[in-house]
Amino acid sequence: MDANHGEIIDAFRAHGFSVADTSRLGGGFPDCVISRAKKTALVEIKDGKKPPSARDLTPQEREFAKTWRGQYFVVLSLDDVEAIGKDWVKL
Asked: What strands lie across the sheet with 18-21, from one edge to the other?
């Protein structure tokens, strides 16, 4: 679990999202499921403070993202949460 995991989840909730923490599922499944206004997305949380190589998706995460047909985000920071929150109705 990345160091910013809790603050990212808290930020989504502060933006009015329902959040299910799925980080313990493994197998490449993303870290959380978010929902607001009857739209749902999967979110992989990476620590944006780490070097780029340390925040790459794992092979399982890459495969999952490649085959997933719904909304999927990789979030590195609170700024990413803010951007998703603002653009949510457009997605």
From this structure: 18-21, 32-36, 39-45, 72-75
